[in-house]
Amino acid sequence: MPESERAKLLRSLSSTIFCQALLDELDDSDSQSADLDEAQDMYCGVKLNRYLGSRSNVARSDAHRHLVFDLRDDEFKKSLRVTKPMFESVWQLIRGDVRFAQRGTKPQRDVAVQLAIALEWFGACGNGNSNWNLVRHYGVGAGTVTAYVSRVRQALLQHYGRYVKWPSDIHRAVSSAFHRERYGLPGVIGMVDGTHVCFDQKPHIDGALHYNRKCRYSLNVQVVCNEDKRILMIYTGWPGSCADSTVFAKSPVLQQTSKHFKADQVLLGDSGYTVSKHVITPYKKPAALRPDNAAFNDVHCSTRVIVENTIGLWKNHWMSLKGIMTQVRKKRLCCRQ
C-alpha cells in the first residue's frame, strides 16, 4: 500500500526535528530555537489527528442490505453461496459469540448483516472480492467490511473442530468396507491431496519461501476427504515452496498414526507422496508398465480423483480461496488440523 500524505508529513517533520535538535546542540546555546518548537508543535498536531483534512461522507445505498433477505431461494444462494436454511443455521451458531457483543455506546449492526457481508466476501475472487463492491451494496465503509469478515471468520473458527474432524472407528470401518466392495481396495479410509491458496502479492515475511513451482506465492494446504467428499482434515501453514510429501509428513495424521489409523487402514495419495504404512501411491515407471500394476493404478486413480473433485468443489464454492488479496505482514501461528 502506498504511503499516505499524513505518513509522509510525519516522516518529514521527524527528520526536521532531528536535524534542528542537532544544530541546536552544536550551537552551544541553552535556549531551544523557535524553529524546533514550531516543528515539534506541528508534529504533535498531526500525530493527534487521524486525517489531515476534514472528512466528507460518501453517498452510499443500503438498499441491497434490506433486499438480500427477500431474494428467491436460488438468487439468495447465488449471492451468499448458501441456502436460506443453511444461512439460518450458521446465524444461530455464531450469533451469541462474544465478538458480536456491544462494547461501547453504539450497538453493532445485526449479526445477520455481518454474516451476509462475510459470506459474499468468501464467495468472490479477483475484483469481485474487493471491499468496494460490498461497500456499494450494503452501504457500509470499507474498513467496516474488513471488520465484519474478521469477526465472522473468527466466530466460525470456534466451531471448526465440530465439523472438520477425523472419523471415528465406526466411520473408518464403513469407509473401508465401501472401498473394498466398490473398488476392491481393502483398508482405504480416505484420500489425500495438496492444493495451493495463492496470495495476490508477495508476503512481507519470508516471501521467497512462498514462491511455488507454478510461479505464484502461496500456502500449501493438505486435504483429506472420504468417499462422500466430506473433508476430514485440513492442514496448512507451510509455504508454497514445500512439497506435498514434506508438509503431510509433518501433519498430526502421520505424526500420530496410532490415533488416526488401525493397523490395516490407509489413505490414497498421488505419486508426489512417499509410500508408507498408511499412505499408498500408484506405481511409477518402469514398474507401472506391468499389466497387474497398471490395473492397480487405474483403480487407484479412479478412487483418488474423489479428493481432487472435493478440492475443486470447495474452491469453486468459496472462490476467495483462489487468491487472497490480503497482504501478509505479520507472523502468526497458522498450522491447523
TrEMBL record:
Its cofactor is a divalent metal cation. Pfam families: DDE_Tnp_4. Residues 192-326 form the DDE Tnp4 domain. Its main location: cytoplasm. GO terms for cellular component: cytoplasm; nucleus. Keywords: Cytoplasm, Hydrolase, Metal-binding, Nuclease, Nucleus. InterPro entries: HARBI1-like, HARBI1_animal, HARBI1_dom. It is found in: Cytoplasm; Nucleus. GO terms for molecular function: hydrolase activity; metal ion binding; nuclease activity. Signal peptide: none annotated. Transposase-derived protein that may have nuclease activity. Does not have transposase activity. Belongs to the HARBI1 family. This is Putative nuclease HARBI1. It comes from Phytophthora rubi. The lineage of its organism: Eukaryota, Sar, Stramenopiles, Oomycota, Peronosporomycetes.
